[in-house]
Amino acid sequence: HEINDRKATELEKAFWSITDENGNVDRKALGEKAFASEESLKKLNEIAHKSIMAKVSEIMDENRSKGNVFFAIDGAALFEAGAKDNCDAIIAVIADWNTRLQRVVSRDSIDKERAEKRFEGQKDEKFYTSRADHVIVNEDLDELNNKIADTLNKL
Taking Cα atoms as reference points, which of 5, 84, 80, 8 lies closest to residue 41? Predict the structure, then answer.
């Protein structure tokens, strides 16, 4: 979620009126505009993916130099951004529609309709599960860490 000044300017040019008085990107305003149409979402992804992947590569390179060899990339756009090429295994973490809806509404302080609009612009669950080496069903946040640990132990 880190957005540098150059990307903020690029996003502002593409989406207009998405920064606050301090020049910071208003994520809620950006989300409303970006998820308004398939074309808008594509524009956001074009701007964001290149920057995100550059940052991921930078972090991985830094950590490799320190002897770390295990990395996890958490990203809904893993395939679209080309990050899968850096992965030895893909783990899809999924939840049912209603659970996801409740979590997004709570996390982002938006109404149900806005959250549903976002979902319309996203790939469906089958897109991710069909491309994953492992699938974790995230129904209970208390059990999630155990499921993750079990899956990682299989790698």
Answer: 80
